[in-house]
């Protein structure tokens, strides 16, 4: 039997009425200190619209393979052009012509 603590939990609603819950668990407290051989775990729980549930438990080394795709698909990252367009939209009033021209260039606008 392992003894783990829940480090963090999150739930998201998916298309088609599915609910996905994820829990990050600590290392096995009965196995000693955290190390490569005693990593945390991640538990995915997927509940269908009819209440059917599937639970998948991944060791930390396997769950690590999912981190980058999850972050890339979920986190909004602004490019330099996105930031320039936002500044032009929200703060152009009162800016110098040179500053506006610089932001327009960064935003990728052309004067055609």
Biggest sheet strand order reads 1-2-3-4
How many distinct helices? 3
What overall geometry do the principal axes of the alpha carbons give?
elongated
**pLDDT < 50 stretches:** none
- Work out the helicity level: 25-40%
Class of secondary structure makeup: alpha+beta
Main beta sheet strand tally, sense and closure: 4 strands, antiparallel
**How many beta-strand runs?**
4
Order of helices and strands: EEEEHHH
Mean pLDDT equals 90
Relative strand content: 25-35%
Can you walk me through this structure?
This protein is an alpha+beta fold and 112 residues long. 34% of the residues lie in helices and 26% in strands. It is built from three helices and four strands.
